[in-house]
Amino acid sequence: MLDPQIRDLAQAKNFAALTVIPAGGHPMTHVMWVDADDQHILINTDIDRAKAKAMDADPRVTVAIWDAENPYRYAEVRGRVVGSVAGQEAADHINKLAGKYVGGPYTFGPTDTRVLYRIEPIRQRMM
Fold first, then answer.
1. Do 57 and 23 contact (CB within 8 A), yes or no?
2. pLDDT digits (tens, 9 = 90+) for 9-40
3. What is d(CA 6, CA 76) in angstroms, rounded to the nearest whole number?
4. Cα–Cα distance, 99 to 54 (Å, whole number)
5. What residues does each domain of the chain span?
6. Please, what CATH class does the domain formed by 4-126 belong to?
């Protein structure tokens, strides 16, 4: 189960740093929009992005989320991708995130295919 304080931080208008391990083995980190349900951190990206390919190949990830109003208040979740979904559910989710972060719908490119990843916490802490 995701810590409720971390869930609330992820559901608010805060950014996250997603760290994945690509095929080359050197971790890479991306600043991302973030969301959560009661069980998982939710990350939405384009299916052709390097971070998506890395999560498909190696489910181990770390997500750090910081409070936009107080960046010294943050959470770290080390976990693994336990599921993903593409199609309308992922498209609806990115529109929800765009409403939260930019106040309107997401602007899809002509080749965008969204995928929503569910990350199960293995280790989590709130600072």
1. yes
2. 999 999 999 999 999 999 999 999 999 999 99
3. 8
4. 27
5. 4-126
6. mainly beta
Q: Is the pLDDT of residue 111 over 80?
A: no
Residues 93 and 49: their CA atoms lie apart, in Å, by 17
- Per-residue DSSP letters for 45-85? EETTSHHHHHHHH--EEEEEEEETTEEEEEEEEEEEEEEEE
Is the pTM value of this prediction over 0.85? Answer: yes
Q: Give DSSP secondary structure letters for 5-60.
A: HHHHHHHSS-EEEEEE--TTS--EEEEEE-EE-SS-EEEEEETTSHHHHHHHH--E
CB 64 within 8 A of CB 76: yes
Distance between CA atoms of residues 63 and 19, nearest Å: 6
DSSP 110: T
104: which DSSP letter?
S
On whether the CB atoms of residues 80 and 57 are closer than 8 A, the answer is no
